[in-house]
From TrEMBL:
Residues involved in NADP(+) binding: 11-14, 39-40, 158-159, 317
High-level lineage: Bacteria, Pseudomonadati, Pseudomonadota, Alphaproteobacteria, Acetobacterales
Gene3D superfamilies from the UniProt entry: Dihydrodipicolinate Reductase, domain 2, NAD(P)-binding Rossmann-like Domain
Active site: 128, 242
Keyword NADP in annotation: yes
Name of the protein in its database record: Aspartate-semialdehyde dehydrogenase
Source species of the chain: Roseomonas haemaphysalidis
Gene Ontology terms, MF aspect: aspartate-semialdehyde dehydrogenase activity
Length: 337
């Protein structure tokens, strides 16, 4: 029989996309259960031509549920994932709660689907930057081990949730009207501005929590525990697609032509690399797309040895960076059972 699927955090920015992905991909489910905070109980959401009521999450929400897609923050995951597993569900968790737990696989299906076999009831869905970056890095890393990675990100509002997306819209409108706007969700003015990622800063190291997550998770997904990674994460006034500049050092010289061939042949990626037209990956073209866009491929002039390539990547934070990857994991869980 087709599984019963629950979405925890169905009303959130990622939750809405989870519904969309399940519908668009024709996910074989017999029933969909929508869970959120008591504030949303009684609301309805549209799925496959029907309205489904949203229920308040509690310990008994998971009775009869086979797959539970969690996207309501790590506090909710830590509090309720065990209840879901106890009820017999497999949890695909979009929060950071279990990503570094050695007993919980951290999976990007194009990169390390084999890790899924080790799950004990919970599978972690990676941080959005780690998921998008590893789709582009893995095909290169498989052919030529990466020995060092340098990254700078340009991250959209969606990563901070639906309220942050709304703050970007409202503050931009206010700014265009010449009105003042007091930020409530993000720590700094967002309209016509950018700022260092709003994750918690570690004062001793100078790295914020987003950067630390991307480093640890990229290593884990690529299976490269010691990979040196330098990174700067920046929030930019874009609604829903992240972009990133990646500079990759290999053990040997890798030509742009070979890298292009490897990336072109890889699943989940689309090459956008038109030098003549100055057309490269952009958040506007990555938004709403399943594929991660990769381009701006060139030999990095910052490495005199010639062993480094630079590239630019854009991917939909809400899709490959969250909901799509979670649904792809759920699809693999089904095909493996
Ligand atoms: P709600 O809409 O009822 O607040 P986002 O990442 O866009 O901020 O969304 C967060 C999601 O997590 C929303 O669906 C939100 O539901 C849900 N959520 C927040 N707090 C709770 C809670 N205590 N129990 C269940 N769901 C929650």
């Amino acid at each position: 029989a087709s599984p019963v699927v629950a979405i925890v955090g169905a009303t959130g920015a990622v939750g809405v996309e989870l519904l969309g992905c399940l519908e668009a991909r024709g996910f074989p489910l017999s029933r969909l259960k929508l869970l959120a905070s008591p504030r949303s109980a009684g609301k309805t959401m549209h799925f496959r031509g029907k309205d489904i009521g949203v229920e308040a999450l509690d310990d008994n929400s998971f009775e009869g549920v086979d797959i539970a897609l969690f996207s309501a923050g790590s506090g909710i995951s830590k509090r309720y994932a065990a209840a879901a597993v106890k009820a017999g569900a497999v949890v695909v968790d979009n929060s950071s709660a279990f990503r570094m737990d050695p007993e919980v696989p951290l999976v990007v299906p194009e990169v390390n689907a084999a890790a899924l076999a080790q799950h004990r009831g919970i599978v972690a869905n990676p941080n959005c930057v780690a998921a998008i970056a590893t789709v582009a890095l893995a095909p290169l890393h498989r052919a030529h081990p990466i020995r060092r990675l340098q990254a700078a990100t340009y991250q959209a509002a969606s990563g901070a949730g639906a309220a942050a997306m709304e703050e970007l819209r409202l503050s931009t409108a206010a700014s265009l009207q010449g009105e003042s706007f007091e930020p409530k969700v993000l720590p700094h003015p967002y309209a016509f501005n950018l700022f260092s990622h709003n994750a918690e800063m570690d004062e001793a190291s100078g790295y914020n929590g987003e950067e630390t997550k991307v480093i640890a998770e990229t290593r884990r997904i690529l299976g490269a525990a010691e990979l040196p990674i330098g990174i700067t994460c920046i929030r930019v006034p874009v609604l829903r697609a992240h972009a990133m500049a990646l500079t990759v050092e290999f053990d040997e010289v890798v030509s742009v032509e070979e890298a292009r061939r490897l990336l072109e042949a890889a699943p989940g990626l689309r090459l956008v690399d038109d030098r003549a037209r100055n057309h490269f990956p952009m958040p506007s073209e990555a938004s709403g797309q399943d594929d991660v866009l990769v381009g701006r491929l060139r030999t990095d002039l910052g490495d005199p040895s010639g062993r480094s390539l630079a590239m630019f990547v854009a991917g939909d934070q809400l899709l490959k960076g969250a909901a799509l990857n979670a649904v792809q994991i759920a699809e693999r869980l089904l095909s493996g059972r």
